[in-house]
Every structure is written in structure tokens, then in C-alpha cells.
Amino acid sequence: MRGTKISRKTRETEIELSIELDGEGAANIDCQDQFLQHMMETLTKYASFDIVLRASGDNEHHLIEDVGIVLGMGLREAIGDGAIKRMSDRVVAMDDALVMVVIDLIDRPYADLECPDTLYTHFLRSMAMSAGITLHTVQMRGFDDHHIVEATFKALGLCLRDALASQEELLSTKAAPEVRRG
Question: Which residue from 54, 69, 87, 179 lies 20 to 30 Å from 107 (Cα-Cα)?
Fold first, then answer.
């Protein structure tokens, strides 16, 4: 199974994450902020990951930002070097909200985001940069910020589930990059 465990402690936050990409959508999350917990549970369910997350922080901004960073680090490490589908796009409706998310899990970090909540814009950007992925979100409709953010996390989860699917060969016109570790 593709997975990893990451711990990150700063003066502002303390985060422990265990992630299994080939899971069943099981979430065991305690992160001090109810909405962040709800969004992480939503992402976990729709991506079919298994996640254990413990996160605490000195304020909401630092907590949300650092959970995004650690999630991105965990995704990057858990994905590894195997050939995956890599790209995905999804459109999700949730009541008044209609959101499109498009991702490419290639080592080209970029985020172009439409999100009505600056904290969750920051979460998504931090995650994308730490994971080294390209992430686009488009708010097509919606007036309830909660619904828009939640539809974004659902669409992102579905994209991650699709893009992480294994395949026979690397999907690229270029050769696999040579990476030296250590």
C-alpha cells in the first residue's frame, strides 16, 4: 500500500499525519477546528484515503495552513515514483454551489484558485505547493461559502482518487526525471 507518516512541529502548530492512499475512506481526525475537521473528513471519504490526523495550533490561520502543508507533504511522499493516471477533473454540485476542480499530479507546483474563504484558499495553495501538484478550482455558481468550500473538497477528493490510480506506464512524452535522494 502507498502510504506514509509525517510529524511536523513548529512554534505555532503540532501535526501528526498518517495517510494510506489505497484505503477505504476511513478518517480518524482530531484537529481542534470543527470546519477543518469536516473538510478533512470529506476529502478523505471522496478520495478513498485512510487518514489519521492529530493537529493543534495557536490560531485558526496557522492550523489550517499547516495542515495543508503536511497533507501536501504526505501526498508527495505516499505517491512515490509509480506510474499513475496523473490527471483528473471533476465538477461537483452541492445545493447552490457548482465547483470544478482540475489536477495534474506532476512535479510542477501551481495553484489557480477560486474560493470564497481566504483560509481555505490558503489551505489549498499550501497543499498544492507542498505536494508539487498543479491545482485549479473554479466556482461556477454558488452563494453559500460553506457549500462552495465543501463542493471544492469533494471534487478535489474525487480528482485525487482518479489521478492516483495506477497504470502500466508513465503518462508523459518526456522520460521519467532522474531524481537523486540522500
Answer: 54
Q: Tell me the longest C-alpha to C-alpha distance in the chain.
A: 49
CB atoms within 10 A of CB 136: 16
Q: What is the DSSP letter of 131?
A: H
Fold of domain 3-163: Ribosomal Protein S5; domain 2 (3.30.230)
**How much helix, strand and coil, in percent to the nearest 5, is found in the chain?**
35, 30, 30
Q: Where are the domains of the chain?
A: 3-163
* CA distance linking residue 91 with residue 85, whole number of Å: 18
142-155 pLDDT, tens digit per residue, is: 999 999 999 999 99
To the nearest whole percent, how much of the chain has pLDDT over 90?
Answer: 86
Sequence letter at residue 117: D
The set of cell numbers assigned to 100 is 470544478
Cell matching residue 109:
507546483
Please state, in angstroms and rounded to a whole number, the distance separating the CA atoms of residues 39 and 16.
17
